[in-house]
Automatic annotation (TrEMBL):
This is Iron complex transport system substrate-binding protein. SUPFAM superfamilies: Helical backbone' metal receptor. GO terms for cellular component: outer membrane-bounded periplasmic space. Belongs to the bacterial solute-binding protein 8 family. It comes from Klenkia taihuensis. Keywords: Signal, Transport.
């Protein structure tokens, strides 16, 4: 019954805004693959921090927030990280398939936050509309991919703000979330601190190249400049192996192509449960210089590859520095 009500609300109210966002072409990540560090022209809000009501221009149109959000639901990758980093504990969140509701790195980063109060609203790619509506949110955050099938329904439940999504856009997406929460200055300070630290960490690499690999079940992938991790390496001006300078997020490797994972420094993640993956036992893997000499670093899989936000970026920088 509740699902029917949600759908009916969506049809009656439609999206919070039907107007197309301005400068849509400017929203794409640069061809270089370096993450956009500010919002496209016209996006966000012109209201001062803490000032409500406010209009927020986002990747789904324009949404009016009548008051400071108190009951936030986050749907998409990186948004739980983003709101917690801005001092807001959401009432609901989705989770990645096979992962917990609150990643361990976030529990470590925010030990004083009441994360047990966050309710589950399904999987990131399969959010539960009834569970979302039951939480009576006053703001829903979702990215463009998640908004395609259910954006109108979400807007029928509560004011909805759509971020672009994908890891490389994490900085501009944080600024858009901050615009909805009225906390832009805090987001700008967070990002500047991270960029300053990225430059310092990157200087420690000198001319050494950094290779990034993830092993998940029967897939082994190298990660390019157009990924969350790639954007952090780019911010630190860290060189990448020739095979990892592509502007996409990742490329699959066959067992015969594992040499493409070579780099002066190798950082690799292993999906939970994939510790016995065939690739990790392959002579082509164990023969990689960084694996053979024991200098390769196994990293936090959830922070590096499953999430994108300031707290995840801090984990990445700490492990790059270490």
């Amino acid at each position: 019954m509740l699902r029917a009500v949600v759908v009916l609300l969506a049809l009656v109210l439609t999206a919070c805004s039907a107007d197309p966002p301005p400068d849509a072409a400017a929203a794409a990540a640069p061809v270089s693959g370096v993450a956009p560090q500010e919002l496209p022209g016209g996006y966000g809000s012109t209201a001062a921090d803490g000032e409500f009501p406010r209009d927020v221009v986002h990747f789904g149109g324009t949404t009016t927030l009548p008051a400071e959000p108190q009951r936030v639901v986050v749907i998409s990758t990186g948004q739980l990280d983003g709101v917690l980093s801005l001092g807001v504990v959401p009432v609901g969140a989705t989770q990645a398939s096979g992962a917990g509701l609150v990643p361990a790195y976030l529990a470590d980063a925010f030990p004083d936050a009441d994360l047990t109060s966050v309710g589950s609203v399904g999987l990131r790619l399969e959010p539960d509309l009834e569970a979302i509506a039951a939480l009576q949110p006053d703001l829903v955050l979702v990215n463009t991919v998640g908004a395609e099938p259910i954006g109108a329904a979400l807007s029928g439940i509560a004011p909805t703000v759509v971020t672009e999504g994908t890891g490389v856009n994490w900085q501009q997406d944080l600024l858009l979330v901050a615009a909805a929460l009225g906390r832009t200055a805090a987001a700008q300070d967070l990002l500047q601190d991270l960029l300053d630290d990225a430059a310092q960490v990157g200087a420690g690499f000198g001319d050494a190249t950094a290779s990034v690999v993830r092993v998940s079940g029967d897939r082994t992938r190298i990660w390019g400049t157009g990924s969350f991790v790639g954007s952090i390496l780019a911010a630190g001006d860290v060189a990448r192996p020739a095979d990892q300078r592509f502007t996409g997020t990742s490329q699959d490797l066959s067992d015969e192509e594992l040499q493409r994972a070579a780099g002066d420094r190798l950082f690799y993640g292993v999906q939970a449960g994939a510790e016995d993956a065939t690739a990790l036992a392959s002579p082509l893997w164990t023969g990689l210089p960084a694996i053979a000499d024991g200098t390769a670093v196994r990293v936090d899989d959830e922070a590096w590859f499953l999430n994108a936000g300031p707290a995840a970026a801090r984990v990445v920088l700490d492990q790059l520095a270490g």
